[in-house]
Task: inverse folding
């Protein structure tokens, strides 16, 4: 049976209006603009309103992606939301988005893969199309990390921001679209990036609230070392699986956690800075939303053109990692 090629036919993103600067943070914890810029590359991040949940950001990004794909909600067969900050433990955020969009025939589920979520979700959604089961899949990465950050912990609160990015996947011309991917996990290191409480292991209690166990805890240095190693390894392996050489890559669309991680990966891959889609200076680390927002910006400002070879590469809680090579077809469908 001939394999169906799958590409991105539409893309959109949304970030909240409220901007939190490094200066603002220096009024909240013992930090400085200099430290944050030098150690992370982050200058500002966006913060959701009190009443905005992951589904609200996701829905706004999804509407733009549907518009750009010329698709209506009732054509969508499946909605996958990658998020570490779901509206609820259940029902899934994807079901809230399904209702918001009135996507009548769509199945819907969330994926919990930390910052790697978007790459996993695109690979998963693509399989439903390449197998002939579905025609149009909406994949969203959406995060309101500001709601699970400990605003007294300078080690983490300066890093994260809120936002959402979405894509519509559908069949595309052969030779374009998703060429390969690689997904991985290493659960033995799960404690180095974790929200300890609120699940079945440690349900909410007075103690968990008092001890701030519902907020992100991170061993920054351990994650940093893992990230540098895995960004190179995963990018190379997906590129080789696609039958390409690293020099044939036009763009790296990396998870945006730290400019030093991105620079180290670029150096190891022997790629120049202008080959990376970078926006963490403006938005910080938006976890599963980082890659689709960076991709959306690069597509909309014309940097990414039809025929360009891109590798998306991410790492995150789990620990997990994922890389995916796409040959960009702006329309994503046969033209
Ligand atoms: O998406 C996946 C999630 N996260 C990541 O990928 C993050 C990966 N890790 C990192 O990006 C970096 O490890 C950080 C940005 C988190 C930290 O940078 P670092 O260069 O690894 O700093 P460090 O943790 O080694 O800390 C160096 C110093 C420490 O002080 P002492 O012990 O040397 O006196 C920290 O207490 O910097 C201090 N520090 C700060 N100082 C000012 C930590 N955070 C801050 C801060 N402002 N915000």
Result:
């Amino acid at each position: 049976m001939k394999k169906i090629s799958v590409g991105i036919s539409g893309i959109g993103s949304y970030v909240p209006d409220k901007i939190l600067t490094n200066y603002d943070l220096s009024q909240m914890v013992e930090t400085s603009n200099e430290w944050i810029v030098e150690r992370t590359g982050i200058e500002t991040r966006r913060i959701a309103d009190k009443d905005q949940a992951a589904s609200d950001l996701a829905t706004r990004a999804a509407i733009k992606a549907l518009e750009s794909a010329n698709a209506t909600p009732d054509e969508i067969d499946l909605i996958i939301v990658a998020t570490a900050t779901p509206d609820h433990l259940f029902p899934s955020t994807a079901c809230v988005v399904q209702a918001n969009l009135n996507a009548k025939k769509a199945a819907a589920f969330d994926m919990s893969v930390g910052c790697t979520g978007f790459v996993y979700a695109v690979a998963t959604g693509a399989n439903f199309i390449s197998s002939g089961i579905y025609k149009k899949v909406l994949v969203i990465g959406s995060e309101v990390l500001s709601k699970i950050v400990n605003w007294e912990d300078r080690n983490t609160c300066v890093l994260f921001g809120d936002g959402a990015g979405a894509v519509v996947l559908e069949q595309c011309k052969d030779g374009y679209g998703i060429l390969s991917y690689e997904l991985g996990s290493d659960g033995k290191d799960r404690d180095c990036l974790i929200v300890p409480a609120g699940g079945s292991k440690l349900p909410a209690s007075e103690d968990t609230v008092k001890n701030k166990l519902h907020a992100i805890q991170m061993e920054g240095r351990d994650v940093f070392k893992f990230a540098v190693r895995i960004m190179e390894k995963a990018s190379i392996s997906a590129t080789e699986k696609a039958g390409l050489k690293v020099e044939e890559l036009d763009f790296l669309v990396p998870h945006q956690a730290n400019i030093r991680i991105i620079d180290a990966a670029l150096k190891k891959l022997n790629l120049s800075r202008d080959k990376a889609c970078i926006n963490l200076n403006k938005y910080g680390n938006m976890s599963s939303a980082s890659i689709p927002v960076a991709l959306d910006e690069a597509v909309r400002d014309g940097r990414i053109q039809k025929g360009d070879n891109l590798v998306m590469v991410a790492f995150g809680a789990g620990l997990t990692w994922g890389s995916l090579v796409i040959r960009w077809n702006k329309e994503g469908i046969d033209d």
